[in-house]
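Hey, sorry to bother you again with one of my protein questions. I've been staring at a protein lately and its backbone has me curious. I owe you a coffee for this, so here goes:
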Amino acid sequence: MLDPLSAAVSFAASFVAGAINSVAGGGTLVSFPALVWLGVPSVVANATNTLAMWPGSISSFWGYRRDVAQTPARMLLLIIPSLIGGILGAILLRLTPPGMFDRLVPFLILFATLLFLAQEPLQRRFKSTASSAHNTATWLYAALAFQFLIALYGGYFGAGIGILMLAALGIMGLTDIHQMNGLKNIFATCINGVAAIYFVFGGLVDWPFAAIMTLGTVSGGYLGAGAAKKIGRPAVRRIVVAIGLIMTATLFLRTWL
């Protein structure tokens, strides 16, 4: 049973994360550190957050279903490395000693924050370099391998995988951002889904937090998107980056000094 303060903080963090994900992505940089600061062990916090954020991936995919229907069928091959990498990443997380993961967390959050900061320049870069030449078998194999590594990281930690997946789709020659976002959401659903299922059966989920954060994520995605849109995408991105850097610094001081 959660105390009122923990329930309020976890719901607020997940609500904000859901709203941020609906507009700019990067909500994990809010929700995961909040659990850590509430005293949830980092491995359990990561697993719980993965489960709580999963419904958002499903709803996001549904919004792009018509765009995905128009993409070449070969793009769906990336589902295979997404599932394999996602489950292996989750297994790797469970095998990581909690103390070691605690010390890795600040660097993982920093990596995800820097990825988020570089998202738009990277998107422009991949869009400008995409061409029909990327439709060769060599590029397909490269994209499959890259997606596997993304999924491995996603099953292990998860923050920032959307940005990396857009890069993989750019490698394969896609330039339509709506199609790319739709496919990205399918793959994220696969990665987070198999990881979440493994975490559930592995006993790594804190169910009271998972329940309230799932409610917060869904509510934030539905109700908070309007407020986030009013603030504006650039402002939302700056807020997420600021939170990520602050959490990196504070967690580094907490675990390394």
